[in-house]
Amino acid sequence: MIEENETIEEFLAQHATDVEDAVRKAAAAEIMPRFRRLADHEVDRKSGPHDLVTDADRLAERYLTEALGALLPGSVVVGEEAVHANPSVYDAIRGDAPVWIVDPVDGTRQFVHGDTGFCTLVALARHGVVLASWTYAPALDQLATAVRGRGAFLDGERLHAGAPDPGSDLRVATSHPDFTTDEQKRALLGLWTDGVAPRPCGSAGLEYLAIARGELEATAFGWEAAWDHAAGLLLVEEAGGAHLTRTGEPFRITGGNALPFTAARDAATARRVAGLLSGGARRAA
Prior knowledge:
Blueprint: H1 8-31, E1 43-45, E2 52-54, H2 55-71, E3 76-79, H3 80-85, E4 99-106, H4 108-112, E5 119-126, E6 129-137, E7 142-147, E8 151-154, E9 157-158, E10 170-174, H5 182-188, E11 196-200, H6 204-212, E12 218-220, H7 226-238, E13 242-245, E14 261-264, H8 267-284
Parallel strand pairs: 3-4, 10-11, 10-12
Antiparallel strand pairs: 1-2, 4-5, 5-6, 6-7, 7-8, 8-9, 13-14
Helix pairs in contact: 1-2, 5-8, 6-7
């Protein structure tokens, strides 16, 4: 628990492993017992056929909301399912209090289908700046962490995104068409060019981890929900990567970004992908 005069940086130095424990326990208690065991009544649809929610999402978020709030009194939890129930909860990201940004099951579609490509995402932010993040893939038993200015790690080993091999195609994970506007679809067409190999994305959190590990060159995403991006963007930054919107500005978790945006292994790749997205939008205008 944070002491009265303790800073967030001091809190993280003392309690980052407590957050890790909470994430692991939430997955063990509420997610993994339902993996490949979901009944039909435990799965619902939100905005469309690919926007799923399960009892695991709701119960894991409830667990994390209680655990994280207790660890850092005065903080606020912004979870995907809480925002779905009450959109005004999202406003806390732009407030003064420390904010836990939570996606209890990122990749719910994969989770429902029995695929291991899902994860739990937690980020701690204040004043729009992400300070720490936890990306846990429970079916793979992999945990990636990052603290601003202290590096990114996977299961205790430091991550280095590196740079693409010269002359190789850029592998870019892109938004599902169901989650892009017509304008964003036109911008994404800029990636269909020589030297780029776009493909549909899976779990956003695991795509960010793939960039931090140097296994994927970039993403191109057309939605802003902070619970999908906050943890992964810090992970990429701390591994040496970069992120830019279509107009060349860093992505802001507080919103108002020019979409699509990219995260990439290095700054040069981020600029290249952002330029292609901008060029695609101009050509289609």
